[in-house]
Fold each of these.
Amino acid sequence: MTGLFGTDGVRGRANEYLTPELSIAIARAASSRVSKPGRVIIGRDTRTSGPMLEAALAAGFASAGLDVALAGVIPTPAISFLIKDEQAHLGAVISASHNPPEDNGIKLFDRRGMKLSVKEERKIERLVGQDLPPVEVVGGIRPLEAAAARYASFLIGTIDADGVDLSGMTIAVDCAFGATGGIAPHVLRHLGATVVELNTAEDGARINQGCGSTHLDAIRTAVEANDADLGIAFDGDGDRVLLVDRDGETIDGDRMIGIAALHMRKIGSLDPPLVVTTIMSNLGLEETLGRHGIGMIRTPVGDRNVAQAMVERGAKLGGEQSGHIIFSDHSPTGDGILTVVKLLEIAHESGSDITSLAATIELYPQVHRNVPCRAPFEAAGAPQVQAAVREAEAALKGRGRVIVRPSGTQPILRIMVEGEDERTCAEVCSLIEEGIRRLLL
């Protein structure tokens, strides 16, 4: 079976594409990379299909001889932590991240807590559906006790500065009816903040629906209504986060990376002095970092690509514009709650606030559009699309960038135009979008 894994695991309509049968097959195939006896930890977000797929995945692992520990509803990055804390051999998360409720997915992690490489995923793909030899001893399945509490303690323990106290600070938190609802408010209250909760219930039928990091209107309204100092919006599985400042302005992943990089450079902890981002990160971020002697390396989209490049370069900080941020001293994968904790710590140490710190990262205008497409990878490489990109780049006269890429998680083409003037970017983006839509008709 080829093409099973996308940029962030297996993902598709639950019980239609991602069935229990496929989940069992993936688990059995993935088990082949682990010497027996071995242990695997499974977590999930709140989607209605989660328990069904959890049961199938656990059965597949156990039938292949692995002991299974069920962490229940928990953010994706918590599995990365728990793998290392439990000395497990493999981890799996059942989640479709920011996708709608009817979708679901499977993300696999190695014993280091890192997402599997493309090479490893391809090996698993080749085994899915094959008849694998039976094992003599099947694995057991049990709950993993206090998984969420242990993860929350880990997050609080990442604070290095003494006396971080958020007393007097009001923070609005939108958990998108997902996996962070039982943890993020607790961590912030532990640090002394007054927390306004939005969408913290475990409601898989409403996960990501008009809320969370992909729909910021709800958190903006809450910040204004409660005169909050900061708004925080997670996606369904908690590996990404976006912020809203007290004026309702978005603080995206690029600005969060910039805040952290400048502070770490100042205190001498950004060694080597570089960050890893993706092709989507803003040119303004690159220029700002360059003025402070910090290099920036770009990878293809996907926090896995960022994480692997960070390991290769020994980088301490990396991430995506979408809000996947990696602090490698604490975690090898994107972690929304960890990002918030570290940024609040930086604000405390700087004697400033996140809004003011974000204002120091000057960004170029970017215009983004999504075009629904049955075969986005084929469409992205079509000569007509490539010609439209070249024409758009010419219109920017060398003072901007144009990127047209297939989504690795949804059937759409993503368009990004970046330049000095927002109006020109919007016009150029519209021309590309119209050209692609004509091609797809």
Amino acid sequence: MREIVLINITGEDRPGLTAAITGVLAQGGVNILDIGQAVIHDTLSFGILVEIPDTERASSVLKDVLFCGYELDQQVRFTPVSEADYQQWVGAQGKPRHIVTLLTRKVTAEQLQRVSAITAKYGLNIDHIDRLSGRMPLDMPDEQGKGCIEFSVRGEPADPAALRVEFLGVAQELNVDIAFQQDSLFRRNRRLAVFDMDSTLIEAEVIDELAKAAGVGDQVAEITERAMRGELDFAASFKERLALLKGLSEDVLSDIGASLRLTEGAETLFSELRRLGYKTAILSGGFTYFAKQLQAKLGIDYVFANELEIVDGKVTGVAVEPIVDAQRKADLLRQLAAQEGLRLEQTIAVGDGANDLPMLAIAGLGVAFRAKPLVKQSAKQAISTLGLDGILYLLGYRDRDGLD
């Protein structure tokens, strides 16, 4: 007869502990059915599910484990597992897996309670919880903090749409971001990331800045806002706004370009994407003049944006076809993926406006970044709390992965 036993070991972490315990088990001819280990603040939690082939030897093996644990100043607990329970556990391994990612400036117990309660409500079982963000100093100002907790969950939600609505509600209530995505092969095998520019990579809508310089700022800003909310057709609104810039001097472009500020986390994100072998692109309804400046600064591979036609040192106000609108952004994403030999599941798309929704919808990971409510509700994922580098967490990236 055989015995199946779950061995739990807790105590101060120390080198050689795993080798010592498994060494004792090896002498008893034990088979390992499952194993897991975590260390939190130098405190070890170590679990081993074992099969002891010979019942007569079981008490001797477990006694040796207990003695070894005592010598290492560890607490040891044994829990017998029936064969029926073990077989039921084995049968559950084919269930779908998902990742729930909590992004916040400071992690609180309430945030974890609300997220875990929702996962349980929809029939999802939490298998692992990991902190992806770095260690947070106690005196770190809240607005500078960066926290990420990743839940690995098993099962299929009873109502995925309702689950998402609840996550969005809690995210808004607690000022956090909650991402829910399938834990598939493609999650860690993405290789192309495309970005909107205005209000995504930079903290401004360039056409609005040009309009201010042309003395039509309020008029253009109102049209821009309605277009980003999805109330106006982008191409038509773009032509309308551009026409109001007719006669603007070319001299103001360099000053506006120099004043544009990168969005929080942009440099970190692009540095890491390059290190991980990603190709990157700007797909923007803005202007190539400014997009190429960003390309040089961030090391971006491709730029597709609108041409700002200038004749005799003046902006003509005439749109140059083809306009990079919502449909063209989606088409360009497909084109770049095919060019790089990638499936769409291996792509990431990031944007803030309604004209970004088609490309966000077809990308493997579509992220609405600091977006309007309509866009946030429609996109697969949304980040509003952290900077652009928060996208790395959705890929399973840990802050320590970036350390040299």
